[in-house]
User: What shape does this take?
Amino acid sequence: MNAVTTNRPFLASHARVARDLSDSVSSGLKFWPLLAILTSFWVYVTLSNVLYATSMQASLASMSPGHYFAPWDARVLQHLFLYPILILCVLGSVRVGWTPMWRTVPLQIAMGLFFSFLASPAMELAQMLIGHEDGGHSDHYSWSEFFKGPDSAMWLAAATNFELTYGFGLALVTGFGIYQRYRDSQLRSAALERALTSAHLAALRMQLSPHTLFNLLHTIRGQIGWDPAAAQSMVVQLGDLLRRLLTAGEREFSLLNDELRFSRLYLELQQKRFADRLTIWMADLDGIPSLWVPSLILQPLIENAVVHGLAGHSGNVEIRVEVTVCGENLVLRVINTMAPNAVAGRDGIGLRNVRERLEVQFAERATFNASAADATNWIAEIRMPLLRDGPELTAAA
Assistant: This one.
């Protein structure tokens, strides 16, 4: 009893999903596009039948005089009679759908037979209203003869022909419905991909390592006792750092000057933490042109330089941040000294994030390399297109 009760919500949810899927399939075609497709198709069928019957009548009449095909006006009227029935049958077919097959296939066949078996009576009615019978005028053709029905052989021949015609029309509408659903799914997929990319970029922009913040807080705590002024200054700088981090994390692009100021603020905090070991050198902010770069793109490289440079030895470490404009490319370099003969490991999370962000935002137009320049220096280099127009125009491009 408990197992059945527990599974009821699960089964109900699956039944609801199946019902929603069936409704989406049956409503995949809107009425007006369906009407336009069927109208164009039926005009083509009418014209082709009239031209075929006219050409065959002319060919047979040249060999043996007589009327072998119904005249063109009767054929046009027959197709006018069948047009609303075609619309109703196809609408019913779309509504019924194709699942489950044991129930829908007999209904589909029945609607096709209903339409096709009305073709011969429609022709008889057209000939009676126009006044033709077998191509000639008739004064005795009446409603009583109409209700007797056409000859069984003619009825079967017309039904077979129009059954195939109905099948082609239904296949055309079904194919268009499948195309519409495929197009809609592509649009939804593209929208989801854009949302995923935005979420991914937002996560990558918030890459400041939590353990770095913890270390800075511990450093501030250690300075409170013997140098309160320095501790207060570091608290202010840390607050400024976090405020800039949150602001930058809300944007996809920021000015290069702002990125360098953020990197300098971070390095100054680290320099106070490792006052006797860390030296920093940064490009002159006054000489930097007004360019745009992905937000926080330098931060993982700066963090990696601090960790990579200070690990494994107790000597002095220098970190250099260089900016170079080469033609239509912007080159950003972060260089740090490291322990002699240090073994270079695989890319960490920060470097992989930089690589992924450049690939998402610039594809093959940007490159990123991080490797040992020599035995004592590590270099991380970003080469990307110059962005002078701001984030809106850049995103549009």
